[in-house]
Amino acid sequence: MNQILVGSRLHYLVKEPTVFLLNLSVAQNEHQATSNESIEISPFQTVDECAVGQSGNRLLRLNALPGELTIAYQATVELHAEEVDSTNLGEVSYEKLPADVLTYLNPSRYCESDKLFRFASEEFGHLVPGYSRATAICNWTFDQLTYTPGSTGPTTTACDVLLQRTGVCRDYAHVSISLCRAMGIPARYVSGYAVNLQPPDFHGFFEAYFDGRWFLFDATRLAPVGGFVRIGTGRDAADVAFATMRGDAECTGMKVWANEQQSGDHLLDPENVQTAVSSA
Amino acid sequence: MNQILVGSRLHYLVKEPTVFLLNLSVAQNEHQATSNESIEISPFQTVDECAVGQSGNRLLRLNALPGELTIAYQATVELHAEEVDSTNLGEVSYEKLPADVLTYLNPSRYCESDKLFRFASEEFGHLVPGYSRATAICNWTFDQLTYTPGSTGPTTTACDVLLQRTGVCRDYAHVSISLCRAMGIPARYVSGYAVNLQPPDFHGFFEAYFDGRWFLFDATRLAPVGGFVRIGTGRDAADVAFATMRGDAECTGMKVWANEQQSGDHLLDPENVQTAVSSA
Amino acid sequence: MNQILVGSRLHYLVKEPTVFLLNLSVAQNEHQATSNESIEISPFQTVDECAVGQSGNRLLRLNALPGELTIAYQATVELHAEEVDSTNLGEVSYEKLPADVLTYLNPSRYCESDKLFRFASEEFGHLVPGYSRATAICNWTFDQLTYTPGSTGPTTTACDVLLQRTGVCRDYAHVSISLCRAMGIPARYVSGYAVNLQPPDFHGFFEAYFDGRWFLFDATRLAPVGGFVRIGTGRDAADVAFATMRGDAECTGMKVWANEQQSGDHLLDPENVQTAVSSA
Amino acid sequence: MNQILVGSRLHYLVKEPTVFLLNLSVAQNEHQATSNESIEISPFQTVDECAVGQSGNRLLRLNALPGELTIAYQATVELHAEEVDSTNLGEVSYEKLPADVLTYLNPSRYCESDKLFRFASEEFGHLVPGYSRATAICNWTFDQLTYTPGSTGPTTTACDVLLQRTGVCRDYAHVSISLCRAMGIPARYVSGYAVNLQPPDFHGFFEAYFDGRWFLFDATRLAPVGGFVRIGTGRDAADVAFATMRGDAECTGMKVWANEQQSGDHLLDPENVQTAVSSA
């Protein structure tokens, strides 16, 4: 498996003592091996790292004083995602879902699945249950929405997006997650780095649960799922904001990258829907 | 400490094979000792019990066939809640909050704290930080809302309630939780049995986090906090619905009770705000 | 042209002096000739009638004292709606629409057309402009929604309905109106009596503007457009509520009817979309 | 009475043939006499002017070809607003309100008064009915909100603003209008030019109805009510947008002015609430 160099560099103008919570470190799990990882804060200061939840999220926390602040993260990641033939991946019946997976059927702040039962049922209820139904939801989301930077904001929900028909990666994920949950398919939000994403940025995509495992999906088709490096997992974007601040600081610049050591030609085409990628 | 007999009896008419997920068993934690617990399903069938999350939630799951169904739960509970003088209980600064508590600062489906930062800050920003600020939020919620059964439904959120000014226990909790989170105070929803609640029913209240512990609050003032028996803990009511069904079943009757073995006179008056009750 | 007997009988329990505003009289315009009209209030009292707006709306106003109240209205109506071949009815360009028609392109309380420009454009933008596009909007609305009494309430809007996919006649009209306006087709709400409506009730439908005239549409297909007797015209249901009260009164019963003197066989089938009915 | 020079100059880059609907001409009514009025379009073309509604609104309509477009309007206005002692101005009871005024009790797109009955009643229900109650609503709105350019957008409603607590002039007006209507006081939106407004711009304020007349209010306190020159009157901002386009054109610049011929010292202080200004 090839190596991916990921990283991000964030610049802030801190106006008063400000606590930063950062979700930008690569998650720790068996599907991605990290090496040469570094986090540098300038001016120098120590960072508190803590694990959050069961999915390998690593929260960085620091206390910044007024002035300029740069946060630079990088790591080399080896992905061990498993590629599976999706043909026979089935939905898990409600009575057999593990208890900790059931949580991902509940509605969340930006994924109001409880308002979309009939909507989902009428659009997708006639389809054969299984992995292909989540694919159908992604295709539908891709067809319905127009990717439009700036068209949504931090409080925009899946229902808002279903009406306005525009959004960015986070919104595509929220819509797909909401429709999956409304159909009884557990689904959750994933933030990460993405090889070949243009323009480079943090990416938001999602996972749905079939046959006892989580599989990656991305309704935006902006980058190959096989090149996704997980940062955090949550119910929706509220759980994995890359930076949350308490105090007063202004973001003055940001750079994000995810480059394969060799060409990414072997990565799955974003439109290849036959091969499922299990990474959690 | 006195003993409390809690229980619930739910009747359904099941119209097609239906999976039930039930949150009605008393949670398992060090603050409440349960004995003589029983769950009876009629017609007889086994129930699958599973633990959910870190707070002792116990999910019951059963697969009902068409026909009448009765679910009867009861238990004897000894509460070991600790009563503390609330005077000096302080808010925990953002940089010191445990990682698993940070989650309860995030907005959730029915608690859109991300839309209420300025609202909360203008109403409560001038108050001294600490336990008394959560009390002020409860008092404000109690004053603003009129308890009105039937005025809200399953998709009603804290923002809806802030505008319509009516709600039931679940709505009072959602409003208080949202305002706490918007002020930087971690807060979470608790469902439970409540001694002296009139009319007897499942109850919804909440917890906020001070000085390293969770404390119980109830903006409805309908029953003494010291007589609350926890069923489940979650981000909001979405996580601890007492019954979720997949299939088709109609609730035809319900009885809920929570009785102290002796008189409840020793229980704190709902309006006593000096004594904090730590139960988690 | 045949005669239609319409009427309504409303019973209230008035608990304190209450002003009633009633929209239940047949509108006065050249398309419907009214005879034998009577309005009886019991216990007896006089009613103030006033014309509202430009479309023949007649508002009845009365001041009720505590006690039982019955309002009985009836009239015989001869409809002079004109039936036209819809084939060549065109949309009027923005620059040629009469000023008083332009108003009906604006969003209103229950018709948030300003949020649906892209939605409407993607669903209907590829269709040939003209009467048939409004027909397509009605068909789409009929297909998407399930008529479900009780599923919506007085504050439900078109956007709510588009997400929940259920509603009653008023909601069908609001959705269709919103989509027409978003496409640049002036549209307005009409309340009325409807021959052959089952169960008999006040009905809500709508009008859209083509080639200088208003034409009737009804996305519910519950009754033939040719048997609609107009009560009031407005931007949406907010303008023509059949009863608005200021005080305290409870509705204890209601009967509404609209019967043709002879069989209604000659009325257009609700699904006949070739023949347009111009009634304003 | 002094003379006010008002005007506006709008620059557009028109990308395809575009119809413009403009609400920027001074309304024609007995309270404001206009002279030296001119509207110039460059490149030259004729403009279609039409009266809309009953309040003197004058809609300008033009058909622009691709290229640069400048619309320049100016006029000299003499205001004949009547200043009255507000002390005894009373609310008009529901049964005596003129039919065409009743319309302004209905909820509208950006003024969801139907959702705010209890809210308004609890905040203002205890106050003495009359002009001073609308003043109290303005004061409350001024106190609750923070004037924040850019914090709201074209689809923001009064309910949104009540939760987020920020807005601009249009939002202040929508909140005040909604609360007035919910209290049974007819209220409507007014757009106009405003002497001493800083920075100069089109302004949005509102009117409420007392003792048979409409009186001007402005919850923003940004400029003296006595220096307001009316452009248009409507249910809310949806009815009097200064420019609506159908086609594709980008606004590249805008200048608005309203200058008194002599010093405006005689104008009422925005915080003088004793003197009511009747201008319609």
TrEMBL record, chains A, B, C, D:
<dbReference type="InterPro" id="IPR048930">
    <property type="entry name" value="Bact_transglu_N_2"/>
</dbReference>
<dbReference type="Pfam" id="PF01841">
    <property type="entry name" value="Transglut_core"/>
</dbReference>
<dbReference type="InterPro" id="IPR038765">
    <property type="entry name" value="Papain-like_cys_pep_sf"/>
</dbReference>
<protein>
    <submittedName>
        <fullName>Transglutaminase-like superfamily protein</fullName>
    </submittedName>
</protein>
<dbReference type="InterPro" id="IPR002931">
    <property type="entry name" value="Transglutaminase-like"/>
</dbReference>
<feature type="domain" description="Transglutaminase-like">
    <location>
        <begin position="161"/>
        <end position="221"/>
    </location>
</feature>
<dbReference type="Pfam" id="PF21295">
    <property type="entry name" value="Bact_transglu_N_2"/>
</dbReference>
